Amino acid sequence: MTDMKEMIRLSSIKKNYGDVKIIKDLNFTVYEGEFLTMLGPSGCGKTTTLRMIAGFEEPTSGEIMLNEKPVSNLPPYKRKINTVFQNYALFPHLTVAQNVGFGLKMAGVPKVKRGPQVEKMLKLVQLEGYGNRKLDQLSGGQKQRIAIARALINHPQVLLLDEPLSALDLKLRKQMQLELKRLQRKLGITFVYVTHDQEEALMMSDRIAVMNKGHLEQIADPRTLYEQPKTCFVANFIGESNIFYGKVSEITKTDTKVTIENGYLTLQSDKPVFEKQIVNIVIRPEKVKFSTTEVPGFHIPATVAEHYYAGNVNKSVLRLPNGMALKMTSAGDQKLPEIGKSGFVYWELADAILIKTTSDDVFKAVDNPDFSMVNQMGGD
Ligand SMILES: Nc1ncnc2c1ncn2[C@@H]1O[C@H](COP(=O)(O)OP(=O)(O)OP(=O)(O)O)[C@@H](O)[C@H]1O
Question: What range(s) does the ABC transporter domain occupy (predicted)?
């Protein structure tokens, strides 16, 4: 991305509401034509960040640059930025065409010129011929398309989208995800998208900024976030993961051994660790293997606790002696070990992700109430 033109830059952004620090030193850049998603749990400050970019909120300190120029003194309407909200924010008393053409009207474009542009926009969002309809004659998905057409008509440089699909049902949401992505590619407009839905973020984004409690955990393309999460939070938030907490107990020329509760595992020898270092090891469920006999390099006893059939895959829970539920995913047609069977878990050395634990990011799986396979599987 470094050869791309910078569109938005957040430098040392902080935002307090009273004494509460909502955003704590946020730094990232969005490039021209990029689809960047801010992803994070409810309350982590995504909307606040978006509102600062739009100009509806002022940072407590720090600087936002648009096109490499500071925007602190620019009111929202002078930034070439439009926003699409979750609740559409359309004008109920206006027709579809009047809603879509609103921005042009405000900019003083005469009616005769507005008509063709409105039609063009309606065509773009696949609602050609809907201009004379009233809003109450539209479905949720159609209303959101109108909101998008309205936001695009005056050719913003950046479109901010705050959970635009969360009011839609699952099927429509999936369809609109594809449509939005197609639209963004076609127009080449920079999109800054907010969601708390990791699957949506993975599907649509060029890069994802994972936020947690007002700070940036990691910003990277979806594959990197999944394969090389830098923190336990990211590993846990993006996709499913098993996280072990352990101590580097022995480093030899060929092996790096990590002692975990009730066992040990081996790391690839090139991992940059030192003896006695506390680490977290992340292993994705699809990489976990189960064997009735012990596999060299690993000693992690486990008992098969449950299987869930999920169509193309089987999801299994393996119970470790310390009570930790380990998630294992296998191909739907694969023969599964019987419930109650005892054995050992292991994986290919290259599949383990090492996270060097800092004091803020210690993840003790057994202590973490969220870390129950059954709870996680019951989700959406
Ligand atoms: N005007 C305000 N005054 C005081 N606190 C606020 C204000 N706006 C937001 N907050 C607080 O700031 C925090 C971050 O809110 P924000 O809406 O940015 O989170 P979010 O990540 O977008 O969450 P969600 O996904 O639930 O919308 C929340 O704790 C919220 O209560």
Answer: 8-238
Question: 171, 194, 227: which is the final residue of a domain?
Answer: 227
- Per the structure, the complete domain to which residue 358 belongs is given by 240-377
What are the structure tokens assigned to 248, written together? 């580097």
Q: Residue 131 and residue 76: Cα distance in Å, rounded?
A: 28
354 assigned to some structural domain: yes
Decide if 233 is inside a domain: no
Ligand 1 touching residue 114 (CB < 6 A): no
Residue 241 pLDDT greater than 90, yes or no = yes
Q: Which tens digits make up the pLDDT trace of 253-307?
A: 888 999 998 899 999 877 788 888 889 999 999 999 999 999 999 999 999 999 9
Residue type, 16: N
Beta bridge partners of 309: 314
Best residue among 13, 44, 48 to mutate for probing ligand 1's pocket (most ligand atoms within 8 Å of CB) is 48
DSSP 116-128: HHHHHHHHHTT-T
% pLDDT > 90, the chain = 60
220/313 same-domain check:
no
Are 223 and 258 part of one and the same domain? no
Number of domains making up the chain: 2
